[in-house]
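#lab-general

N.A. 3:47 PM
ok so I finally got the sequence cleaned up, no stray characters, all 135 residues accounted for. can someone with queue access submit it? mine expired

B.Y. 3:52 PM
send it over

N.A. 3:53 PM
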Amino acid sequence: MNNVTLSGRLAKDPECKEFEKGKAVCDFTIAVNGYKKEDTVFIKVKAWDGRARSCSKFCKKGSLVNVCGALRENSWKAKDGSIRKELYILAGDIEFVQRPQEESGKTMPEQTQEVSQVEESEPEAVEEGLEEVPF
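B.Y. 4:20 PM
back already:
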């Protein structure tokens, strides 16, 4: 199973591109903290279409995001003839957790607000389900 979940802050503003047939792609890098400051790892992330448009709209350098997706490898031939490779996360889900401090007064995207509403209603659904358990 190829599944990765990381939480980190954008190291720089996302780079987003629109293509002719309505496709969009957004590339960004997140800084993921380790146990020590010098253990910080920078991970490249690629998001497509709706996720890409959301990233371009709601993210900028310093934004805290949770990214779930699959680990992918990209390879190419460099000018010197050597084969280069890079690993990145192909985002399947992006949660916008916190904006940079200077924009903290703005509202978060509707998607994040919907997630919090679902979480509030879940305990009731779980309690109802417990009454129906046959043992």
